[in-house]
Amino acid sequence: MTKVYYNGDAKDQLLQGKTVAIVGYGSQGHAHAQNLRDSGVNVVVGLRKGKSWDQAEQDGFTVLSVKDAVQQAEVVMVLLPDEYQPKVYNEEILPGLKPGKSLVFAHGFNIHFNQIVAPEFVDVFLVAPKGPGHLVRRTYEEGAGVPALFAVFQDVTGEAKDVALAYAKAIGSARAGVLETTFKEETETDLFGEQAVLCGGLTSLVKAGFETLVEAGYQPEVAYFECLHELKLIVDLMYEGGMEGMRYSISDTAQWGDFVSGPRVVDERSKAQMKKVLEDIQTGKFAKGWILENQANRPEFTAINNRENEHLIEKVGAQLREMMPFVKKQKKEAVIASAK
Ligand code: NDP
Ligand code: MG
Ligand code: MG
């Protein structure tokens, strides 16, 4: 097992007396800002005028322009959407970076793919909680924390690792455990996970299953329940007890079907495709496509998104969820939690 760092490994004094600028107040930003403040760290929030600005002020923070927040801080945590970070960095963050300051991220994409080039006189590291911001905040309030990864990209002061651990402690993550990684590993595994398994793999699997049933003449409503709705129950069981825990709870018939049919659906060909997906991530091909797509104002992203939203599974799902107010309520919270 790789080394896991806990509260006892962190030197809190490294953040005491310093000011941390939290740039962005969305999913991660609001949670980091509030947890740091509750841990006794001086926080300012850097934003443009708008919804997040009002919210951060309402939550009692000193809110400044990104430029002013960076000027005042020794530690600058960049929690803007990854696509917008390079522009804001060049225009508003870079001018305020001075020797000895720390430039911090929660995801390695822009540093790893060279979209943000940090001056050689600042420490650069990442602290990436392995959960959405609302969970980072809620677990902290409950006295626990969401595990996190940290990585040091550039260490000028000789203290980058210790400041990263102090930061991880202050947001509650070192209560649960913090693992060391590199910018390369964090970025590539994060992209691969969401593309091949968590988001891309899953939605394609669900759609293919749904379409197979509907094309065979079964009712879309029934297909929806079997291929999408029940997923949550299975995922919850896997989250709690791994595959063994999930298989313990399902029927033996389901478990036998899992054993004999699962490997027929996701087989060596799928794994060969996964290796290609990984290769495109490793070579920078995926990153390049996504960066250019954003520069072109997202024509393909928009077209695919519109087409996906028109899929029969979405129409049927919307109607069925109307019948299940308990699902709708949970869904709203989850959407807010992940969209914030
Ligand atoms: P969100 O989209 O939730 O939040 C974005 C914030 O940035 C908002 O407060 C928004 O304010 C602000 N913002 C956007 N554009 C600008 C701008 N031009 N100038 C100033 N402020 C701006 O981001 P996330 O919290 O999801 O992501 C932040 C980072 O954390 C990313 O690097 C991401 O990869 C990483 N991360 C995210 C996780 C998650 O679960 N969401 C998990 C782990 C890491 P406004 O209201 O004005 O638009
Ligand atoms: Mg990601
Ligand atoms: Mg069943």
Brief rundown of the structure:
Substrate binds at residue 251. The protein is an alpha/beta fold and 340 residues long. 59% of the residues lie in helices and 12% in strands.
Structure explained in plain terms:
This protein has 340 residues and is of the alpha/beta class. 59% of the residues lie in helices and 12% in strands. The protein folds into two domains: 4-183, Rossmann fold; 190-339, no CATH class. The protein has helices at residues 27-38, 51-58, 66-72, 85-93, 109-112, 133-141, 160-170, 173-176, 183-198, 200-215, 220-229, 231-249, 252-265, 268-282, 285-295, 299-309, 312-322, 325-339, and strands at residues 4-5, 19-23, 42-46, 62-64, 75-78, 102-105, 123-129, 148-154, 178-180. Strands 1-9-8-7-6-5-2-3-4 form a nine-stranded mixed beta sheet, with helices on both faces. Helix 4 links the parallel strand 5 and strand 6. Helix 3 (66-72) packs across helix 4 (85-93). The radius of gyration is 22 Å and the shape is globular. The model is unreliable at 335-340 (pLDDT under 50). It binds NADPH dihydro-nicotinamide-adenine-dinucleotide phosphate and magnesium ion (2 copies).
